[in-house]
Design brief:
3-stranded mixed sheet, alpha+beta, 201 residues, 5 helices, 5-stranded mixed beta barrel, 34% strand
Amino acid sequence: GEKLGYEKELLGFYVTGHPLNAYRDLIEGGKFMRISELQLQEDRATVQVAGSISNFEKKHTRKDGKPFAVLTVEDFSGSVEIVAWSDVYAKAAKHIDKGKIVAIVGRFDKRDETLRIVASEINPIGEVKAPRGLTIDIELEKTDEKRLVAVRELVTQFPGRQPLYLLFHTADGREIRLKADPGYSVRDDETLRAKLAKLLT
């Protein structure tokens, strides 16, 4: 990640692809709130966000000199300041470093100009389960463009945050699995499943 950090500082944004791209499904899968949506929350609401640590300062409390950390975490929509007081910091210190990708649960602090979350836990994002995707099974020889267009129109009526996969079955028993563009992420829904079944029989 050294190169990415350098390019980001050089140009003010990521050139060779955002380091979070590999985690986009996870971060935008519905489990986490977009950082840009934080300001819509009530003060002291419990929130869960995920992103990469773009800045990190270790500090010490004035009273008893205990270490704590102030981080900046950014997702695809914005960035937020995270305060990890000493007990949380002690548990999470090994996950906290510039460029690491983390999931944060905490309390939203709305009182002043800075968006801030007081963390209650900080975990590496790899330990967070990805949202279940919706897989559509399609018999390849029964499929023509018209049918695929109908499937596409149907899924866009159920927009959501679950990744969509198309699994094509060929006559000779092979399977071709395609992941749809993130723009086709869906809300898995009984109505959607019923309509798909009807379309694909």
